Each structure stands twice: as C-alpha cells, then as structure tokens.
C-alpha cells in the first residue's frame, strides 16, 4: 500500500495538546498499516499549511480538534484544494460545533435535549439566568473546555473563578442529574454505549485527559431499552447534521426519579479524540475493530464536499 496520507495535527485552538497526541497515534497506526504518512503541525499561517499539502496527498486525516480544525474552516480549505479528508464536511462540522443550532436540529428530529438559554457574559456574572443547578459552557468549544457546573450553594465560588475567554455569549444549560454516557457512530452504524464514571461526577477536560480520573464501562450497564435508544439517538444525530465517517454523541441518562429514566443528548463531536484515553477507539475495539483498522477505514472513506 503506497497511498500518501497527510495527518493534520496541533492547530491553534484550546485543544492543541490533545490534537498533537491524537495525530501522533494516528500517524503511527497508519504507518504501521503501510501508508506513506506525513505529519503537518498546523499553526496560524494557512499559507504554510497549504504549501505543506503540496504535492497533494491522496487523503488528509484531519486530527485537529476545536475551532478552526473541526468547525468547517479546515474542511472548506481542503474542499477548495480538492483533497479528500476524513470526518464530516463543511456544513455538518459547522453545525455540530455551533451548540445552539445543533440542539435545534436535534429537537426537530425528536431527540430530547437539555433546556438552555443563551445569555451575555455580564448577565451570567450578575445572577442566575436559570434556576440552579445549571451548566455554563461556550457556544462553540469542544472537550468540555470552559464548562462549569453551578449549584445554588456554590454559585459565588463558581463565579469568582469564572474566567471567560470564549466570546460575549454564554450557553446556560439545565443540569441533568444521573449518568454520563457516550456513543460512537461509524458510517451508518452505532458501535456501542460507554458509561463514564468520574471521581467527582463531572466529566470535564481534566477527567477526559488525565489517566485514572475516569472509569470507562463498555458496554454501559443500562436497561436494554435505554441502551437501544441511546444507539438510535446517536445515529439519528449523526444523520440529522449530515455527518460522515466517525462521530461521537455525548448524552446524559437521568435515572434518579423513575425507571427506566430519560435520555438527553448534549452534543455531537465530529472529530472525536484518538488518544490512548479516547472513547471511540475503545468502543471500536469492543466491537472487534482494532485501532489500525479503524483509522485505515477512515482514510479509505475520506471524501471532499458536504
């Protein structure tokens, strides 16, 4: 196999370090599979990135995370260059990164979502814009960057540490008690459901990328009907936004009031992590797909356009 693949990694978002780890793992796996791999550390100079992609590779593995890497910007550049790339196209990538817009589409498709309001940074600092507990999050970041849970008795402490550098608008979302679960979708199939249990019940950035902070339970110990519904919601979300390749849907399962409880989708990630602690490779392995075969499938299904 002599297909030439450029792996884009790094980037200029708050998730740069995670992307470097993902990209390195992908590059090694593809090399082991016999691909001719070149790694491109993406910085703020777009012309330099375009030059690094010349001569054009047969495909790009887009291992960038966060803004400018998975929000449609890099996808649009690769479309203009007519280079096939992994993951979703421009529109699906942009919609998934825009949390309020994605939630509107999910609700139209019949997928329950947590109630939310969009407020100014000043209003959030001034007082509760929603009855606590609630979650404060950026409109267009990934990996739980900037996310905070605010409870009634902890509001003052939470707001004292409210260092906000993600724009003038804030999403305030009703906190859903219960369990954190996630579902990977590969093409037209949901791979499985994972439950995530953390030390403090909050699956934040540190919990995601610090070894030992989170326990992954695959398959998630859920009632069968709930398990099947989670798979269906993830696949419907993937299809509703027009995603392709690999995605991962994050959901909450509230089993605190009645049985079997209720599911709600939080968001969909069009370029989920490929680090040693990442969830998609773990779910793929549980489904019998080893890491090298997973990333090889992604390259072989790379495409241009939406």
Features:
306 residues; five-stranded antiparallel β-sheet; four-stranded antiparallel β-sheet; alpha+beta; Rossmann fold; D-amino Acid Aminotransferase, Chain A, domain 1; single chain; Dna Ligase, domain 1; 3 domains
| Poorly predicted tracts of residues | none
Radius of gyration: 19 Å
CATH fold assignment of the largest domain: D-amino Acid Aminotransferase, Chain A, domain 1
Mean pLDDT: 88
Largest sheet: 5 strands, antiparallel
Q: Topology as H/E string?
A: EHEHEHHHEHEEHEEEHEHEEHH
Structural class: alpha+beta
Total domains, how many?
3
Strand content: 15-25%
Q: Which CATH top level class of the largest domain fits?
A: Alpha Beta
**How many DSSP-defined strands?**
12
Structural commentary:
A hairpin with a 7-residue loop joins strand 11 (246-254) and strand 12 (262-269). The protein has helices at 16-32, 46-52, 73-81, 90-97, 99-108, 121-126, 155-160, 205-209, 224-240, 279-286, 291-300, and strands at 4-10, 36-42, 59-62, 116-120, 134-137, 148-150, 169-174, 179-186, 189-198, 214-217, 246-254, 262-269. It starts with a strand and ends in a 6-residue tail after the last helix. The chain contains eleven helices and twelve strands. The strands form three sheets. The protein has a five-stranded antiparallel β-sheet. With 306 residues, it is α+β, with helices and mostly antiparallel strands. Helix 1 (16-32) crosses helix 11 (291-300). It folds into three domains: 4-87, Rossmann fold (3-Layer(aba) Sandwich); 96-113 and 177-295, ATP-grasp fold, B domain (D-amino Acid Aminotransferase, Chain A, domain 1); 116-174, ATP-grasp fold, A domain (Dna Ligase, domain 1, 2-Layer Sandwich), CATH 3.30.1490.20.
